[in-house]
Amino acid sequence: MSLRTGVLALTMSLALCGAAGSQAPTFGRIGLDTLKWSGRPGGVQIAAIEGDAMAADRPYTIALRIGNGIWIQPHWHPKTQHLVVVEGTLLLGNGDAIDSASALVLPPGNVAAIPAEAHHYEGGRGQTTIILHGIGPMTTTLVRPRGAGETFSVPFDAAAPRGIRD
Fold it and tell me: Which of 2, 84, 96, 98 could form a disulfide with 163 if both were Cys (CB 3.0 to 4.6 A apart)?
């Protein structure tokens, strides 16, 4: 399976994992090791923590893993998202093209907000895990789509990221 195909599958699994995580919240610890991850290990993976990310006007919380040296292409979401970096280093940039030199470098413990409709991209340095919270539906629109509803990630050399498209 190509990385591009793997992230297409990840997009479809977002709808499925939303339903799996739609139960009422419970009190207590939720360990990353207890989550049901879908996607490609070493690429991009997603897991529902609470809520249904595809439900309109409902809160959701998901975990997202980005493998070392992976960039998620520039995209946007219709509603504001908040994130916390749990492990690894998140490279978070804004704009219509990946520019690794201008991306924010967010090590574990950092919190960020991504405003509604802000064009942005993410990269992972080391296996990077973030917790995302927002109000659904969590739709993703690529800034430069290649096909209807398409989303994908591309590898880069972690030592010298180039911001390539495919």
Answer: 98
CB 108 within 8 A of CB 87: yes
Strands 70-76 and 59-66: unpaired
> 87 lies in which domain range?
3-24+34-141
Tokens of 55: 């439900």
Domain harbouring 101, CATH code: 2.60.120.10
Three-state secondary structure readout of the chain: CCHHHHHHHHHHHHHHHHHHCCCCCCCCCCCHHHCCCEECCCCEEEEEEEECCCCCCCEEEEEEEECCCEEEEEEECCCCEEEEEEEEEEEEEECCCCCCCCCEEECCCCEEEECCCCCEEEEEEEEEEEEEEEECCCCCEECCCCCCCCCCEEECCCCCCCCCCC
pLDDT at 145: 77
Q: Alpha carbon of 19 to those of 10, 12, 51, 66, 143: distances in Å? A: 14, 12, 8, 22, 27
Per-residue pLDDT reduced to its tens digit, 117-155: 999 999 999 999 999 999 999 999 999 877 655 544 333
Residue type for position 166: D
Tokens representing residue 161 in the block = 């990221």
